[in-house]
Amino acid sequence: MTWLLVVTGGMIGAPLRYLTDRAVQARYGTAFPWGTLTVNVIGSLILGALTGAVTAGAASSHAQLLLGTGLCGALTTYSTFSYETLRLAESGARRRAVANVLGSVAAGLGAACAGVAAAEALWL
Fold first, then answer.
1. Which of helix, strand or coil describes residue 108?
2. Rg (CA), the chain
3. Is 90 exceeded by the pLDDT of residue 124?
4. Residue 37 — φ and ψ, nearest 5°?
């Protein structure tokens, strides 16, 4: 059952990541990795909300496997974030590379905190 939950979440998260990235990049261009930033922030929000729900006793270990490990594991991407940041720096766009690192970390942490706060407000 465990692997089935993780695989199911991954089957949803992987295409969702691809489609979201393509849609965002098509709208805003490729000079900055907005698509990767978007999926990572969304994943952080989901994980934060899931953490808050688990803390409040409103989410099960099955939800953690499906949403946390499966969905968010396939949706978010540290490797692409690293690659795109390196690509920006190597192409001379060092300020964009720094902005990507600082923006990604700040937005990801902010989204995770917002998710925890929202879930706790809802269930505590």
1. helix
2. 16
3. no
4. -60, -45
